[in-house]
Amino acid sequence: MIMAQERMILKGQAQLEEMAAFVRRCARDGRPMDQVERGLWSSLLALGHTLLRGYVEGVGPGDIGDTLILEGRELRRLEVPHDRRYVSVFGELDISRYVYGTRETQKQEAVPTDALLGLPDSEFSYVLQEWDQSFCVEDSYEESRRKVEKILGIGQSVRSLEQMSLSMAEGVSVFQESAPKPPAQEEGSILVLTADGKGVPMRRNAGQAPPAVRGRRKKGEKANKKRMACVGGVYTIDPFVRTPEDVVDEVLRDARRPDRPKPRHKQLRAELTREIAGVEVNAKDRIFSWFAEQVKVRNPTGRKKVVCVMDGERALWKKLRALAPGIVCILDLFHVLEYLWQAAHCFHPEGSAQAKEFVTDRLFRLLRGEVGYVIGGLKQMATKQALRGSRGRQPSAVIGYLEGNRRLMRYDEYLAAGYPIGSGVAEGACRHLVKDRMERTGMRWCISGAQAMLNLRAVYLNDDWDAFQDHRIQAERHRLYPYLPLVRRKRRKVA
């Protein structure tokens, strides 16, 4: 073993000397920098492959005796070494090692070399898996495959990357459950919950006929079915007292105040309704159960004010009311603003100064707590204008929205208390977590693949990627190689 390792190390030294000679030749010949860089990178990969092979040779084939007693059972060393394919970031290795079991056709119950090397369950190295999926959470599997092949010269199939994503995502829930709560001194005094929905385009089920061709689709009709993902966000923040004028300047005049506090320890999740252990679990139930856990963990003494900011979807507010008492419920101001613009365009041309003035005036009044005045004014204008058709229905829809959500629009109180009144975190999460990856051109998902990607993207966007990789590697090694201490003891005795 030592001799084989030394041969690899000597080979690596020769490769390193050749790299130095290559640099000298390039300097003498006046090569362009990019050519030198490409040549060095190729040589570095080859050098890494050689030295990694040397490390494997040093560990050896794992012969720790004729038998191995594992949990009171005697396993014997099978006669013929078994080869294993291992794909590292430096390229592919074939690792020949002894296995222990009852007989050749039965399960390989102990593989000392695998345990000593800490090899993954997959044939792809942990480092390659991490790099692969860090590309996959940002881009399509095909594009990620191309990037990795371009950089490392390693060819992988899209199918292998998809399976890797499914396997890696299995560890997300355990990681999230075991994550420590944020330090109290780093938290803000307001705990904010926010949720929204975003559709994910789904594949047709096997055997399902394609949609009939019926000519041009009607307004609002989609070419493919979507399954709604419920996206949730939790963070803390310090109070930020503002006036109605401050808010109008920010949302209509893009005058963001520089002293606005930043969300602290923001966490995002996205769930699809799906079967778990044979039982269909609702996506909203999953998100709001997580909200309940976060309230307990991040507000254990009840001293923080808990605020929830969402749009007017009744199903979401119904889930919240069942969550916990005492939560301040706030209707997202930006959704209200959309309705105000709809009303404005019923009475004034789009893009006109009159439409902007209409919205500005009503927004000021809503922020001062004058919801009833705005509703009454819209009713009077609709009656006087005698609008017909779709234009006549629009004011009624706006009035119904404001009346139905009136109890969630005490903006004068919210601003005085320094509460957030916009669900920008949820809106951003729907875009970054779901849309930017799941709704690219031509993408269609199965439920398991979509949820796996949503889980991994949540970890990535929460800045937990490195911690998650460490956690899942340790968990998998503990599961695969509980006999590692026994192997080490046996190896020392044999040596």
Q: What is the number of E strands?
A: 12
- Strand count, sense and closure of the main sheet? 5 strands, mixed
Q: Uncertain segments of ≥5 residues (pLDDT<50)?
A: none
Helicity range of the residues? 40-55%
Please give the radius of gyration in angstroms. Answer: 30 Å
Mean pLDDT: 91
Q: Report the β-strand fraction as a percent range.
A: 5-15%
* Structural class by sheet pairing and helices: alpha+beta
- The total count of helices amounts to 19
Number of domains as seen in the coordinates: 2
Distance between the termini: 11 Å
Apparent shape: elongated
Major β-sheet strand ordering: 8-7-6-11-12
What oligomeric state do these chains adopt?
A: single chain
Notes on the structure:
The chain folds into 2 domains: 60-179 and 465-495, no CATH class; 184-206 and 224-461, no CATH class. The protein is built from 19 helices and 12 strands. The chain has helices at 2-29, 33-59, 112-117, 126-136, 141-152, 158-169, 172-178, 244-253, 283-298, 314-321, 333-347, 353-367, 371-385, 389-404, 411-417, 424-438, 447-461, 465-480, 484-494, and strands at residues 67-70, 73-77, 82-88, 91-97, 100-101, 190-201, 226-237, 264-272, 274-276, 279-281, 305-310, 328-331. The strands form 4 sheets. Strands 8-7-6-11-12 form a 5-stranded mixed β-sheet, with helices on both faces. Strands 1-2-5 form a 3-stranded antiparallel β-sheet, with no helix packed on it. A hairpin with a 2-residue loop joins strand 1 and strand 2 (73-77). Helix 16 (424-438) crosses helix 17. The N and C termini lie close together (11 Å). The mean pLDDT is 91.
